[in-house]
């Protein structure tokens, strides 16, 4: 049977779906399928204070994580198959040789391209699938794509079109802002697992058990920087740059996720524990920035096709309250997200409200985000719509749009406490 693994806003889904891509039988029991996503939008964005240096407003065409997927199954025996997937990213708005950041020699082709998405090989069985390679862990959890298949329903955001800069899942649930110990203000932004595919992943995805499925994963080094057998600089001391905080072999990342979809109820629970591999500490940090995170959500879909959910995320980054004097205090914050959607015929509307609490109890370090969306199904796999996002940072907070500085030029020089808003006209075509 031709199968493909559904893509979820830059993520791997838990389960295999019947393919709508073009399948090709290349041998007895072996099939290859071509599928993917074209996602692009026209966007008007701006910041709404005057503290920012540089550009504060822009209109641009922007890619929303387009990709091409080649997947394959080869039968071993009844119920058992060899499987592989190659997901390659492309940008519909620029050429690979165009600068990813204005004025630099880092090109767009350096941040996307062949096999840059979830790419792995493995074995599927009557019990589940075991895969080895690059895989998205944690950060897309609770994004819902029930319009592709009921098994992919989830309690969080569920737009059929999206603006990747405006997804609250990325902008709020997956950001923690390190805090300056002296001023209590945010120092840039840290993203859960970098908001990208984790490398060196061994992953097991279960089959569906009457609405329940789960996933377990381990990576020795999800960042892919595997040459961290560094020695201390001669003058390095704890809390200063050049200090080796941990042996490479002492690190590692564990992930576990579970979902339930049956009837009108959808629920999700995820856990992540990352221990940094080797390397040196940045100045002001007392040690490695290990990360622990828990995310949970539940939703209910009423018979009138109204869906209401709630998502909670608690993330902590060790040693991320920093200053001139080394400290071991962690940067911690909690985020609540309330997504509401309603569909009728080929139309759907969406409202999502997200709120981040203060980081490590420092005053004025929280933020809120509001999303409003409308989309229309031109076919079962092609959607157009409008998408509005507004991020409001408190005076000492620093939450920024997803892909700031690479796909959205106006956010390159973002500053603490600034607000941001964007409206986009977008199209998604799953082929």
TrEMBL record:
Homotrimer. The keyword Amino-acid biosynthesis does not apply. This is Porin. The keyword Cell cycle does not apply. It is found in: Cell outer membrane. It is a multi-pass membrane protein. InterPro entries: Gram-neg_bact_OMP, Gram_neg_porin_domain, Porin_dom_sf. It comes from Geothrix oryzae. CDD domains: gram_neg_porins. Residues 1-21 form the signal peptide. Keywords: Cell outer membrane, Ion transport, Membrane, Porin, Signal, Transmembrane, Transmembrane beta strand, Transport.
